[in-house]
Design goal:
This protein has 387 residues and is mainly α. It has a single domain, classed as Growth Hormone, Chain: A, CATH 1.20.1250. It is 78% helix and 0% strand. This is Major Facilitator Superfamily protein.
Length: 387
């Protein structure tokens, strides 16, 4: 990922994006980041509905995310040279096909292959979405609107899919993913925006500035923390003896919080709080919440904290996205957003599963503190280098 940046002056931000184009990007953002919404349902279904252990379930999700990371890095490197609309349509369509095929499988190996293929296709499409967002006139605000859309999507998903799974079984999980990806493909076909800058001669590759790379690492570490803990929220609640409906209610509340809280607040506070302050504080707050989620045994303490856990990542990353888009206006670093997010998410579930099986639930919280410290250090270095 060391050659996706370009000098900020090489490509000024695109202007005049139509609302339909922005809406298509928001839909693609929601579909491409389905893991941020569905991780606990995904891992929980693989364990309870398909009979896999925590490590195998975490490995399947990790394979999807690794595929997305690889595709994102390759796509981001060539963002200005690609036919973005055509590839976004194709990527989401192939991801839909992979998940629909997965709904007909129950063995680990075919599911593993389809998770990799789905991740590759999804990662390519999502990189094109995020790179186009980074080329908008106000990337921070557009990313905040996308966060609002993701919050609404989370409310609908958590309110609908777990209930359907109770009635119709685990295949509903993959059918839902396939339908979401198909919708994103259709939205891209109808309205994917032309943000300019596509040329084999424009914005030649150059190494990332040290500050950019440090911020990228900080985002990745923070995402790792979220994935490691959030993947097992349902499992933690069940282990603590909380009622299944109470856990589902907590996940619905989480979606509601994400819808009404972090993204609208990030849009409102864009000019009022320095992005540097937000990205330093974000990992610290995340670590404290992770400790409560993994150590609390009383539902009235556990549930409110679990419900706001993801909001910290959404709020912080909105500011980080705006910061990176200003540091590199070509859109290439923004196009690497899926890699930043999913390299952490790819490692989180499998390492979280190993910690639970090898040690305890509480080990997740202790690991989160260590990772948060590294994330803060990375953000601090990036901010210093950008001054």
């Amino acid at each position: 990922m060391t050659d996706i940046g370009t000098p900020a002056a090489a490509m000024p931000p695109a202007r005049g994006m139509k609302r339909s184009g922005a809406a298509a990007l928001v839909v693609g953002h929601c579909a491409g980041l389905v893991d941020l919404v569905a991780l606990p349902v995904w891992v929980g279904a693989l364990i309870s509905r398909f009979g896999f252990g925590p490590r195998e379930a975490g490995a399947l999700v990790t394979l999807f995310l690794i595929g997305a990371v690889v595709a994102s890095v390759l796509t981001a490197r060539n963002f200005t040279r690609l036919p973005r609309k055509a590839l976004a349509v194709m990527g989401f369509a192939l991801a839909a096909l992979a998940f629909l095929l997965a709904s007909q499988q129950s063995a680990f190996l075919p599911l593993a292959l389809l998770h990799v293929l789905g991740g590759l296709a999804n990662g390519m499409a999502l990189s094109l979405v995020h790179g186009s967002m980074g080329r908008a006139a106000n990337p921070h605000r557009l990313f905040a609107y996308a966060g609002i859309g993701l919050g609404l999507f989370g409310v609908i998903y958590m309110g609908l899919v777990p209930q359907l799974m109770l009635q119709h079984g685990g295949t509903v999980l993959f059918f839902s993913f396939g339908a979401i990806m198909a919708l994103a493909s259709l939205a891209a076909l109808l309205a994917f925006p032309d943000v300019g800058g596509r040329s084999v001669d424009v914005a030649p590759r150059s190494p990332l500035a040290p500050g950019v790379l440090a911020v990228v690492v900080g985002v990745s570490l923070m995402t790792f923390n979220q994935a490691m803990v959030f993947s097992f929220v349902e499992v933690i609640g069940s282990t603590r003896g909380f009622a299944p409906q109470a856990i589902v209610g907590t996940l619905i509340a989480l979606g509601l919080v994400n819808f009404v809280g972090p993204a609208p607040l990030a849009a409102l506070l864009e000019k009022r709080i320095a992005a540097g302050s937000v990205v330093i504080a974000g990992p610290m707050v995340q670590a404290v919440l992770a400790l409560v989620i993994t150590f609390a045994t009383v539902f009235t303490i556990w549930a409110p904290v679990a419900a706001v856990f993801v909001a910290v990542q959404v709020f912080t990353h909105t500011f980080a996205f705006g910061l990176l888009s200003k540091m590199d206006t070509s859109g290439r670093t923004a196009a690497a957003t899926p890699a930043m997010l999913m390299i952490g998410s790819a490692l989180g579930p499998i390492i979280g599963g190993a910690l639970i099986e090898g040690f305890s639930i509480e080990a997740l919280g202790l690991m989160a503190v260590v990772v948060a410290a590294l994330s803060v250090a990375s953000f601090a270095r990036g901010i210093r280098a950008n001054r």
